[in-house]
Amino acid sequence: MAHDHEEILRKVRHDLPTDELLCDLSDLFKIFGDTTRMKIMFSLFESEMCVCAIAELLGMTQSAISHQLKVLKDANLVTNRREGKTIYYFLADDHVRTIVAQGFEHIIERDNDSRIGVIEK
User: Fold this and answer.
1) Phi, psi of 33 (to 5 degrees)
2) What pTM does this model have?
3) Rounded to an integer, what distance in angstroms lies between the CA atom of residue 54 and that of residue 58?
């Protein structure tokens, strides 16, 4: 029996973003694919911080943190403000907070589901 997929294909083709937009989205998610950058973003969940504070918190050099902050800033995921000679970094907007929080929630939920499955067996 043949399936008629024409209507759903027409709708999906109409709603599918352009390759350029999908490439940009893929690039954005690649930035989230680095543990150090994720640690930095989680750190900034709580409070804005300067490079030296983030470096101390994560046990890394200021140079390494500065490099990762530049990547995050170039992607508009973090921004900063200057106070005298000190630059404080913070999450760029609530979208970033939501992406990180929902991703974390998904992982926690998945881990809890797999643990429940093991217990129930």
Assistant:
1) -85, 20
2) 0.81
3) 6
